[in-house]
Write a structure and sequence with these properties.
Blueprint lengths: L3 E6 L5 H10 L5 E8 L5 H8 L3 E4 L2 H6 L2 H8 L4 E4 L8 H6 L1 E6 L13 H10 L4 E8 L9 E8 L6 H26 L1
Parallel strand pairs: 1-2, 1-4, 2-3, 4-5
Antiparallel strand pairs: 5-6, 6-7
Helix pairs in contact: 1-7, 6-7
Length: about 190
């Protein structure tokens, strides 16, 4: 079996990207090929470079109005794109050419959509006095957080939890389950 190749898209610190890179670092069937970002200062690039992984930065115009990203990914034989803290809406030309997976820090369909990321989500969970939160790993379509859900995991939210405490619980779920779900999707074909 040929190695399956992943491209990671991240806009910020890249802690999920690093977790995925580490998970697959010695996998004989899956390789993290590259890390991509709209943010030239994304710390995700520093994390990727420590592992010798190629990095690419793109502008909004290159992402939305050209085939630069699609053609470069095709040349690199990418099998799957992973959104690991990537905040832009994905253009149709990418969706039509690649299978794309995102992780969302809530139990979709709750707290999804534009602007619902990071502490914004956890604040909403706490303000609404939800008793649980979690993660949703889903395929990407033309709308924010709207694609078919592949996997969800839950964690309790205590009445005394702050948004930051909820974030810690949700991150633990992300780190545990995201690489495993990626691997299952890739190896299932």
């Amino acid at each position: 079996m040929d190695k399956r190749r992943i491209a990671l898209f991240a806009s910020g610190s890249g802690s999920n990207a690093q977790n995925i890179i580490e998970y697959f670092s010695e996998n004989e069937f899956v390789e993290v090929d590259s890390v991509w970002s709209n943010n030239p200062n994304a710390y995700a690039f520093e994390r990727a470079k420590k592992f010798g992984i190629d990095t690419f930065v793109f502008t909004k115009d290159e992402f939305r109005n050209s085939n630069f990203v699609v053609e470069t990914l095709k040349k690199r034989n990418i099998d799957l794109i992973i959104l690991a803290g990537f905040l832009w809406l994905i253009p149709v030309n990418l969706i039509q050419n690649f299978k794309i997976i995102n992780i969302h820090p809530a139990l979709l369909p709750k707290y999804g959509g534009k602007g619902m990321y990071g502490l914004n989500v956890h604040r909403a969970v706490v303000e609404n006095k939800d008793s649980e939160s979690g993660i949703s790993i889903h395929f990407v379509n033309e709308k924010y957080d709207d694609g078919e859900i592949i996997f969800q995991a839950k964690c309790p939210v205590l009445p005394t939890d702050s948004p930051e405490e909820v974030a810690i619980k949700v991150h633990q779920l992300e780190y545990k389950y995201f690489p495993e779900v990626i691997e299952k999707v890739l190896l299932a074909g």
